[in-house]
Amino acid sequence: MANNTQDKMDRLNSLCKRRGYVFPSSEIYGGLNSCWDYGPLGAELKRNIKTFWWEAMTNRRDDVEGLDAAILMHPQVWVTSGHVAEFHDPLIDCKICKSRYRADDIIGVTKCPKCGNESLTEARQFNLMFKTFMGPVEDSASAVYLRPETAQGIYVNFLNVKNSSRQKIPFGIAQIGKAFRNEITPGNFIFRTREFEQMEMQYFIYPSEDEKWFEYWREQRWNWYMELGINKEKLRWHEHGKDELAHYAKKAFDIEYEFPFGWKELEGIHNRTDFDLSRHQEATGKDMKYFDERFTEKFVPYIIETSAGCDRTLLTVLVDAYDEDPSRGDKSAVLKLSPKSAPIKAAIFPLVKKDGMPEIAEKIYSDLKKKFKVFYDAGGSVGRRYARMDEAGCPYCITVDGQTKDDDTVTVRDRDSMEQSRHKIAELADYLAVRVQVG
Ligand code: ATP
C-alpha cells in the first residue's frame, strides 16, 4: 500500500515534469530541496486557480476588496503578531546521521527512524521565519523577515483599505501572495515547501456576530472547492481541538483532502477574534476601533480568516484529476482536470498533413485562440496526439478530417468519455465557452 502510494506520487511527479507542469528548481545545478518551478502548463493552471479564487472572493462580491502588500514588512510587525516569539516548531536532530524531524512527527520514538541509533537530541524550538538584511550592513538593526503569511499585510492596511474604499463592517480584504517558512520537514512534492503562495481573506465583523460569519465562510469555502470540481468524497472538515488552536484563534476548522499520503490540511478557517487589530493598535498607537451609527459602541472588529494555499490547491487539483486508464494504450495516464481549471482548453489537429486540412485547422486555431488557451498539433498519429493531450489534461480535441471540406464540420473528442461528436466549425467557440468558462 505504502509503495503504491509512493509510486502514484512518483508517477504524478514525472508526468508533471514530462508535460511541463512542475520542475525541480534549479535542476541543472542538482535542484534545491523542496523548491519547485511551474512550467508552461503549471503556470497556466496556477493562474486559473488564482483567477477562480479572486473572482469568487472579490470581483463577484461587493463586500471584499483586494490587496497586494509587500513581502518585506517592518520587522516590528512580526514581534506584534507573535511570530518572533511563537512561530516555532520543535526540532529533533539525529547526532549520527544528521536527519532532522519535527518533534510532533516522532512522538514516543527513541531511535532515529533513519539510522536506527539511539542518537536523537532533545527537542529544541526552531523559528520558521526566514531572516535577511535590508541595505548593505548585515547587523541586527537591518534584519527583516520574509513574510511567513500574507495576513499581516492585510491587518496593517485595515485602516487604509477601510478609508479609501469606504467599506462598512462587515467587509473583507483578500490577497494572493508568496509566503516563506523554513519548514523542518518539507516534502510530498509541492505539498509542503519553503516558498509558497497563499490565498487569504480576512473578514472584519461586529464581535457578537462571529458565529454567524464563521459558519457563512465555512460554507462559502467548501462550495468553492465543489465549484473547482474537487471530488466531494475526498474532502472533509477537521475541527481544531483545544490543544491544536493557534494562540490567536477562538475557533478553527480545516478543510482536508485525502491525498495518497493521507488526510491533510488544504485550508484553514479561523475565528481570530480582535487579537490582531488589538495587538497592532497597542504597538502603534493607531486607533483600529470602528464606529458607525448602526452600532452603539466603538469596537475593535473581530476577524474571520479563510487561509488557503495556492500550491496545495494545485496539487489537490492534480491528484484529484490523475487517473490511469489501461484502455488508452501504453501511455495510460490521464489528467481529468475540470474544463474550468485545465490549462489548455482545446487542441486542434489536422487528421493528416495534406488535402488542405492543416490550413483549415490553423484557421480554427487562430480564431479560437482569441478567446481560449488552445494548442495546435499536427505531429504524429492522432492516437498519440490524443494521448499527449490526455496527459496534459486538455478536455477537448478538435480534429479536421476528410468530411470537413464538404460540410464545415469537425470532430470533438471528449477526454473523459473518449467519445467523438461532429460540430459545425462556426459553433466551436460557443461549444467551448459554456464548458470552460468560470462563472
Ligand atoms: P500545516 O499544519 O500544514 O503546516 P498550517 O496550519 O501551518 O499548515 P496555515 O498557517 O493555516 O497552515 O496556512 C494556511 C494555508 O497555507 C495552509 O492551509 C496551506 O494550504 C498553506 N501552507 C502553509 N504552509 C505551507 C507550506 N509549507 N507549503 C505549502 N503550503 C502551505
Description:
Helix content is 31%, strand content 26%. It has 13 helices and 21 strands. The protein has helices at residues 2-19, 40-59, 76-80, 83-86, 151-155, 158-165, 210-228, 275-284, 310-321, 357-368, 382-392, 404-407, 428-436, and strands at residues 22-24, 36-38, 64-67, 88-93, 100-102, 124-127, 131-133, 143-145, 171-180, 195-205, 235-239, 251-259, 262-273, 302-309, 322-324, 333-335, 346-350, 374-376, 396-400, 409-414, 420-424. A seven-stranded mixed beta sheet has the order 3-9-10-14-13-12-11, sandwiched between helices. A five-stranded mixed beta sheet has the order 18-17-19-20-21, sandwiched between helices. The protein has a three-stranded antiparallel beta sheet with strand order 5-4-6. A hairpin with a 2-residue loop joins β12 (251-259) and β13 (262-273). α2 packs across α9. The longest helix has 20 residues, at 40-59. It is globular. It starts with a helix and ends with a helix. Adenosine-5'-triphosphate is lined by residues 149, 181, 183, 192-193, 196, 198, 265-268, 307-309, 311-312.
